[in-house]
Specification:
With about 160 residues, the protein is α+β, with helices and mostly antiparallel strands. The protein contains five helices and seven strands; from the N terminus they run ββββαααβαβαβ. Helix 1 (about 40-50) runs parallel beside helix 3 and helix 3 crosses helix 4. The longest helix has 14 residues, at about 75-85. It binds magnesium ion. Magnesium ion binds next to strand 1 and helix 1. The site of magnesium ion has 5 residues, from strand 1 and helix 1.
Length: about 160
């Protein structure tokens, strides 16, 4: 009756793009490349929700071949994911997530990300955790080539 989900996503960093994480437009010299707004944190969270409900993934729901999703606000897509998850009989117990980025410093933006995600999910901020870490200069996040995010969530039956 309780369902655990996991999500993972990566986007490449590029010049001339916005850096949107958890719906926060973060000032930085580079931004994330993608068909939508490339909010890698929102994408990992959505995939954890869909995974918990065994409802596929966002690539299936919102294909990047579909022009409707060009530049899409990922938090609006998240609201749609949560609507579908509720329709399937589940509500969010909690979400925990981690963003891996060498730069910029994300700590000042964490609270706003949590607020945005909680609003998009129609749930309380106490159920939404966002953490940030670096990978100590190692790998593609360490070399500032991209940013990754992971998320886990717990879904509970709506009747509880
Ligand atoms: Mg993505």
């Amino acid at each position: 009756m309780f369902r655990i989900g996991h999500g993972y996503d990566v986007h490449r960093l590029a010049e001339g793009r916005k850096l949107i994480l958890g719906g926060v437009d973060i000032p930085h010299t580079l931004g994330l490349l993608g068909h939508s707004d490339a909010d890698v944190l929102a994408h990992a969270i959505m995939d954890s929700l869909l995974g918990a409900a065994a409802m596929g993934d966002i690539g299936k729901l919102f294909p990047d071949s579909d022009e409707r999703y060009r530049g899409a606000d990922s938090l609006l897509l998240m609201t749609e994911v949560v609507r579908r998850v509720r329709e399937a009989g589940y509500e969010i117990g909690n979400i925990d997530s981690t963003v891996c980025a060498q730069a910029p410093k994300l700590a000042p933006h964490i609270m706003q990300m949590r607020e945005n995600i909680a609003r998009a999910c129609g749930t309380d901020i106490s159920r939404i955790s966002v953490k940030a870490t670096t990978e100590e200069g190692l790998g593609f996040t360490g070399e500032r080539l991209g940013i990754s995010a992971t998320a886990v969530c717990l879904l509970m039956p709506l009747t509880l």
